[in-house]
Amino acid sequence: MVCLGSAVVGAAMSASSDSASLCTETATPRSTSHQTFLIRHAQYKNESTRRPEKEKGLTTVGRRQAYETGVYLKKLILQSNKVVEKEKECLQLKRALRQAKQTLREYKNNNENENNDVVLAALKEKVCSLRGQLQWAEAERRQSSRVCLQSRYHSVSASDLTRSQETATIIMNVIQPHVKEEKVRVDPLLRERFPVTPDPPLLPPRAYPNEE
């Protein structure tokens, strides 16, 4: 098992100031957001034999599987960065539009004669232009990826099995420089266990009224 994880401090309801959701640079950190991915190791050699663990490395297909997984994660990270940039652009346009509307309103209140007013026409044109830019930016943001990944992760961990470490190394090499640590962490607790079918929940006797 391979684990890609992070712990980023940011404002409330946000992953970080430059990742999944937008928050201001001056916001006081009030929460910690964790984003973790568990990835199963790729195909490996000598699966059904009792050979030593060091001989159970990835096959050619397994290496390709790990590489494609890294490419997919990197694509999501880059798409998420574009979403954040679009959110910032929309925020700036909303702020500019609000200010332009206020300027137009104040100008109308201070100038009763609006006939053939060049300044008034320029202010109206600016409001219309900003409104169109905002609508276009919001449309592009909605068309962006809905899966938001953080722009940088703390570490990549793997179990002490050869196949897991090789999978993690390939993924890390692909998604760099989006990982802070340069080496794969080894954690034996990430070893996969034999799958077990969960038992049905045990309910109190009164939950079975038809049974004697």
UniProtKB/TrEMBL annotation:
One of its GO terms (cellular component) is mitochondrion. GO terms for molecular function: protein serine/threonine phosphatase activity. GO terms for biological process: positive regulation of mitochondrial fission. PANTHER family: PHOSPHOGLYCERATE MUTASE-RELATED (PTHR20935), SERINE_THREONINE-PROTEIN PHOSPHATASE PGAM5, MITOCHONDRIAL (PTHR20935:SF0). Residues 197-212 have a biased composition (Pro residues). The keyword Coiled coil applies. It comes from the Eukaryota. Keywords: Coiled coil. InterPro entries: His_PPase_superfam, Mito_Ser/Thr_phosphatase. This is Uncharacterized protein. Residues 193-212 are annotated as: Disordered. Belongs to the phosphoglycerate mutase family. BPG-dependent PGAM subfamily. Residues 83-117 form a coiled coil.
